[in-house]
Amino acid sequence: MELLDGKYVSEKVKVEIAAEAAKILARTGRKPHLVAVLVGHDGGSETYVASKMKNCEAVGFKSSLVRYEGDVSEEELLNKVAELNADADIDGIIVQLPLPKHIDPEKVTEKIDHRKDVDGFHPINLGRMQRNLPSFIPATPYGITLMLKEYNIETSGKHCVVVGRSNIVGSPMSILMARNTYPGNCTVTVCHSRTPDIKKFTLDADILIVAIGKKNFITADMVKEGVVVIDVGMNRETSTLTKSGFKLFGDVDFEGVSQKASWITPVPGGVGLMTIIGLLKNTLASANKQVYP
Ligand code: GUN
């Protein structure tokens, strides 16, 4: 078994991103600028947004955080997005999900100018991605493709099983792996909460991408020898053993599954770090007007 090492790949790519950001600053006198909107005080979201801001600063981007209490109205949030859309100093806008129940995430997603939608969640970006046109690719799937490339994982003709069909990971990931690109050209199966016998499919997977949000959901008896495993799980549990007070668990039973896998991502130290890279690369591409000239 070999590790798909998110720490190694993300550090390497961050150096490249920082060099590109420095070029932009020298050429234009400004830094790529990402704005994150955070509503409420969800523990996970707080952590992820703080990490996004920190990583922006680390590569020489400007980052801004717009905060709202959980009772902000949908209208106020939509007005803020319109304001950010119109601000020429901003290259990328993300609204951290999930949002409180009284706010429709689809409305917010569609309100973001697709040319600043560095999450790649807007239907225009999703549609363009499916057609293999220039677009912002959702950060986690994008990060996963960068990792597969870095380790030259063969994907053409393989059976890729994606467990989970979320807008953020499973659904865009399944599109990318089926596209006529590298990585891609897989035969893709998407399993989800209504799939009766998930094991039947995972047992046949050459590449298994798991984004279902359940600790140790995939066990050794569910995979075949030599499988490539991408664990997107970010299951936080309180712990007295770590400084943060939390311990992170994947969706895959690493100890068991790594005995059979040819390649596998650890948690932490895998996909989570690559998600940030996807976001930074999209923000850089936006600042360079590479997707929408
Ligand atoms: N919540 C979980 N992942 C993401 C992400 O990539 N972007 C946003 N905006 N919210 C998220």
TrEMBL record:
Task: Describe the location of the Tetrahydrofolate dehydrogenase/cyclohydrolase NAD(P)-binding domain by residue ranges.
Answer: 138-290
Q: Where is the Tetrahydrofolate dehydrogenase/cyclohydrolase catalytic domain?
A: 4-119
Q: State any GO BP term from the record.
A: purine nucleotide biosynthetic process
GO MF annotations in UniProt: methenyltetrahydrofolate cyclohydrolase activity; methylenetetrahydrofolate dehydrogenase (NADP+) activity
A Pfam family found in this protein is: THF_DHG_CYH_C
- Metabolic or biological pathway: One-carbon metabolism; tetrahydrofolate interconversion
The residues that hold NADP(+) are 164-166
Keywords from the named record: Amino-acid biosynthesis, Histidine biosynthesis, Hydrolase, Methionine biosynthesis, Multifunctional enzyme, NADP, One-carbon metabolism, Oxidoreductase, Purine biosynthesis
Task: State whether keyword Chloroplast applies.
Answer: no
Is the keyword Secreted assigned to this protein?
Answer: no
> Which reaction does this chain catalyze?
(6R)-5,10-methenyltetrahydrofolate + H2O = (6R)-10-formyltetrahydrofolate + H(+); (6R)-5,10-methylene-5,6,7,8-tetrahydrofolate + NADP(+) = (6R)-5,10-methenyltetrahydrofolate + NADPH
**So what EC number does this one have?**
1.5.1.5, 3.5.4.9
Could you name the domain of life of the organism this protein comes from? Bacteria
User: Which GO CC terms are listed, alphabetically?
Assistant: cytosol
Q: Which family does it belong to?
A: Belongs to the tetrahydrofolate dehydrogenase/cyclohydrolase family.
Q: Which HAMAP family match?
A: THF_DHG_CYH
This protein's assembly is summarised as:
Homodimer.
Role, per record: Catalyzes the oxidation of 5,10-methylenetetrahydrofolate to 5,10-methenyltetrahydrofolate and then the hydrolysis of 5,10-methenyltetrahydrofolate to 10-formyltetrahydrofolate.
* Protein name per UniProt: Bifunctional protein FolD
Read off the lineage from the record. Bacteria, Pseudomonadati, Bacteroidota, Sphingobacteriia, Sphingobacteriales
Report which gene this protein is encoded by. Answer: folD
